Structure formats: structure tokens, C-alpha cells
Amino acid sequence: MQFENTLAFAQNLDAEDPLRKYRDEFHFPKVNGKPVIYFTGNSLGLQPKRTQKYIDEVMTDWSELAVEGHFRADKPWWDYHERLAAPLAKVVGAKTEEVSVMNTLTVNLHLLMVSFYRPTAKRFKILCEEKAFPSDQYMLQSQLRFHGLNPETAIVEVKKRDGEHFWRTEDVLAKIGEVGDELALVLIGGVNYYNGQVFDMEKITKAGKSVGAFVGWDLAHGVGNVALKLHDWNVDFAAWCSYKYMNSGPGNASGVFINEKYLDKKDIPRFEGWWGTKKEIRFLMKPEFEPMPNADAWQISNAPVLSVAPYLASLEMFEEVGMKSLIEKRIKIVAYLEFILQEIDRQTDGSFEIITPKDRGCQISVFLHGQGKSLFDYLLKNGVITDWREPNVIRLAPAPFYCSYEDMYRFGQILKQGISRK
Ligand SMILES: *Cc1c(COP(=O)(O)O)cnc(C)c1O
């Protein structure tokens, strides 16, 4: 499609957008009395209006039923979390039994490392991308120290090539081959938080498995964003948060995927608690742990229902819309944003550079050549919420659920004024 940098063209794209009515389903913050142009759905998704109802239900059940709410609420709390598995499995390309919702992301990665990082004298190395998200780096380093290993030698980082802003799949595969039978685990952010790159998860998983390593993915930026087929790709495990593209609220519950081949096994190491034991016998308070036959075996505590409720509200929307149409719009709106950026860059004599490769999801990261933080502040004052990363990068994620093509056009105009101002 031949794009145009005009208001009329953008409005026309909106008129044809099958998802346009969903914009009204979200609360937008306001600046100068007008809804903002929101580019940070990759950091904290906007609040769906229907979420309030899900929270209120739990609050009402709590006030009217108190402890009886565990069994007598319309959505009883004792198995409330089970409602999320089926719709979430569709989002990540899994079987329902392979998915569970619990805890928070870094906590879940630690817990999954108990099962999937079991170093031996020979096989103990972990492969990840260089400059992984800091929490993931701290997680890996502390796991290694916990096992008495030295992170300096046990962590193998795949680097970008000099002068390039992205990782090459062939470099990841070569590194996996090089480490070979010393490789215990591959754990990478499937969609990179900084440059927005989508890794070739299928190929990398296959390569990791072929040298005998476990392969896991941190999908904080992948879930609700790109097409995932965790089951078909033969991924061992994955975890993600729900507050980025999945719009479930600050710090909210995390999801995990555990390949079905590890389910209903008694010999897999795992940290356990009463919510992971068979539901039929959970309240018999017996001393023996009998795992749930699905990913819920990794559950530990009784579910934090007030944080799971917004996730359920969000999943209802994903269920209605489906990943296919979200991805269709995402591809188009990101392409339109890229086009607008290129236009503005031309009109302002090359004042920035796009560092996101073509293998991308919802995010475009822009490296500013001239002014940095002051431009970010200017955008914010003028109703555009972007995200600033050192040294000079602005990240833009036009979430397809609620961003409009007109937002992209208006952003371009504000950006141009911001660059041209003195
Ligand atoms: C957002 C993000 C996190 C956040 O972890 P929490 O435990 O939810 O605070 C972790 N890893 C990656 C790759 C992220 O993008």
C-alpha cells in the first residue's frame, strides 16, 4: 500500500480499521484536556474499561461472602486462575494444560530455573543475548552463584556485530553449536525490549535442543504482540508478564508455559506448594504432594485473585479480537509509523535513525542524532507518551488494540515541530 503523510489518509485508514471500536474500550490519560498519543503499551498497557467490573466483582464477593467466596462466588476463587489458561493458551500457541498464571515474571523465571537449569560438571553454561533486560541478567547471575558457579564463565552472551543494531540468527546458532555439550540452557528475551527485534524462536529452539540444552523464552515483549507457537516449536518453558501488551495493570500476574512432556511427572525438580497439588485432594491437608496433571503443578500459593481478575478481563478482549486480527493491524500501523518517521527524517535532514530491524513486532526504536532527552520532554508536554532509554533512544510502540492511524499522523507533526524548534 502506498501511504501518505496526511490527516485525511490517516483518518481513512481508521475508518477501514476493523478494530477501531476497541479504542473506546480503554481509558486514555489526558494532557491539556486531550487524550494522549500513547506509545508505551510495551511498558504498561492502557486500562480496559471493563477491568473495573472484574475487580468490583471480587470486592463485592469478598464483602458479601467473605471466606465463602472461595467456593460460592460466581467465579469461585479457589480455581479462579484456571479460567485464564484456555484463552491464554491461544495467545501463546500452547495446549491449555501447558499454561498457568501465577506470581510475577522474574519470580516465575527463578522458579522455572529450578526445573530447567540443572547444571552438571560438564554441562552448565547458559546462553543469552548481550545486554538482556537487567532483571533477567540479575536472575541468571544469582542463579549461577546459588549453584556455586561463576557468572563470568558460565554465561555466554551472543553479541551484535560491530556497527549493527540487531542480533543475527546465524550468530546465535553458531554460538549454540560452539558451546555444544557444555550448554545447559538457552534463555533469551523472544522480543528484545530495547530494539524491538523478534528472534527466530523456532530455529533457535531447534538448535538449542539439538545440542541437548533446555530452551526457554522470556516473552515479556512477545506475548499479545507477535505470533507464538510455543508448543509446535517444542519450547521447554516460557514466562511473560501481563502488564505490557496484555493490559492487565501494573506489576500484575505472570503467565508460564511448560511443555506437556514435563507435565504429570513426579521426577521433575520444582519448588512446590499447596496450590500445585491435585485440586481434588487439596483441602485434605495430606502430607504428600500429588501434582496437578498440568502446568498448575508449578503453582505454589493460593492465587492472588485481585491481580488475576484484570488479566481475565484482558483475556476476554483477546479472545474476542483474536491474535490474527491484532497482528494484521499491528503490521499495518507499525509500517505506517515507519513511513511517517521516514518522512519526518527526510524533512528534518536526517535527525534520527531507526534501529529496529525488519524482524519486528509492535515497536520501533529510534536513535536520535541531535537533541535527546529535551525532545522526549517536548513530546510529553505535547501529549505524546514515549519511552526514553539511555543513551539516546526513544521507543515507540503503537499497540494495535487502541492506537489509531491518526495518532501516527499527529505524532509526526508534533515530532517535526519538536525537532525544528529552537
Ligand atoms: C518487563 C520485563 C521484565 C519485568 O520483570 P518483572 O519481574 O515483571 O518486574 C523482565 N524481563 C523482560 C525481558 C522484560 O521486558
Automatic annotation (TrEMBL):
<dbReference type="GO" id="GO:0097053">
    <property type="term" value="P:L-kynurenine catabolic process"/>
</dbReference>
<comment type="similarity">
    <text>Belongs to the kynureninase family.</text>
</comment>
<feature type="modified residue" description="N6-(pyridoxal phosphate)lysine">
    <location>
        <position position="244"/>
    </location>
</feature>
<dbReference type="GO" id="GO:0019805">
    <property type="term" value="P:quinolinate biosynthetic process"/>
</dbReference>
<feature type="binding site">
    <location>
        <position position="218"/>
    </location>
    <ligand>
        <name>pyridoxal 5'-phosphate</name>
    </ligand>
</feature>
<keyword id="KW-0378">Hydrolase</keyword>
<keyword id="KW-0663">Pyridoxal phosphate</keyword>
<feature type="binding site">
    <location>
        <position position="302"/>
    </location>
    <ligand>
        <name>pyridoxal 5'-phosphate</name>
    </ligand>
</feature>
<protein>
    <recommendedName>
        <fullName>Kynureninase</fullName>
        <ecNumber>3.7.1.3</ecNumber>
    </recommendedName>
</protein>
<dbReference type="Pfam" id="PF22580">
    <property type="entry name" value="KYNU_C"/>
</dbReference>
<comment type="pathway">
    <text>Cofactor biosynthesis; NAD(+) biosynthesis; quinolinate from L-kynurenine: step 2/3.</text>
</comment>
<feature type="binding site">
    <location>
        <position position="106"/>
    </location>
    <ligand>
        <name>pyridoxal 5'-phosphate</name>
    </ligand>
</feature>
<dbReference type="GO" id="GO:0005737">
    <property type="term" value="C:cytoplasm"/>
</dbReference>
<dbReference type="InterPro" id="IPR015422">
    <property type="entry name" value="PyrdxlP-dep_Trfase_small"/>
</dbReference>
<feature type="binding site">
    <location>
        <begin position="133"/>
        <end position="136"/>
    </location>
    <ligand>
        <name>pyridoxal 5'-phosphate</name>
    </ligand>
</feature>
<dbReference type="GO" id="GO:0009435">
    <property type="term" value="P:NAD+ biosynthetic process"/>
</dbReference>
<keyword id="KW-0662">Pyridine nucleotide biosynthesis</keyword>
<comment type="function">
    <text>Catalyzes the cleavage of L-kynurenine (L-Kyn) and L-3-hydroxykynurenine (L-3OHKyn) into anthranilic acid (AA) and 3-hydroxyanthranilic acid (3-OHAA), respectively.</text>
</comment>
<dbReference type="GO" id="GO:0019441">
    <property type="term" value="P:L-tryptophan catabolic process to kynurenine"/>
</dbReference>
<dbReference type="InterPro" id="IPR015424">
    <property type="entry name" value="PyrdxlP-dep_Trfase"/>
</dbReference>
<feature type="binding site">
    <location>
        <position position="274"/>
    </location>
    <ligand>
        <name>pyridoxal 5'-phosphate</name>
    </ligand>
</feature>
<dbReference type="GO" id="GO:0030170">
    <property type="term" value="F:pyridoxal phosphate binding"/>
</dbReference>
<dbReference type="InterPro" id="IPR015421">
    <property type="entry name" value="PyrdxlP-dep_Trfase_major"/>
</dbReference>
<comment type="pathway">
    <text>Amino-acid degradation; L-kynurenine degradation; L-alanine and anthranilate from L-kynurenine: step 1/1.</text>
</comment>
<feature type="binding site">
    <location>
        <position position="105"/>
    </location>
    <ligand>
        <name>pyridoxal 5'-phosphate</name>
    </ligand>
</feature>
<feature type="binding site">
    <location>
        <position position="243"/>
    </location>
    <ligand>
        <name>pyridoxal 5'-phosphate</name>
    </ligand>
</feature>
<dbReference type="GO" id="GO:0043420">
    <property type="term" value="P:anthranilate metabolic process"/>
</dbReference>
<comment type="subunit">
    <text>Homodimer.</text>
</comment>
<dbReference type="GO" id="GO:0030429">
    <property type="term" value="F:kynureninase activity"/>
</dbReference>
<feature type="binding site">
    <location>
        <position position="221"/>
    </location>
    <ligand>
        <name>pyridoxal 5'-phosphate</name>
    </ligand>
</feature>
<dbReference type="InterPro" id="IPR010111">
    <property type="entry name" value="Kynureninase"/>
</dbReference>
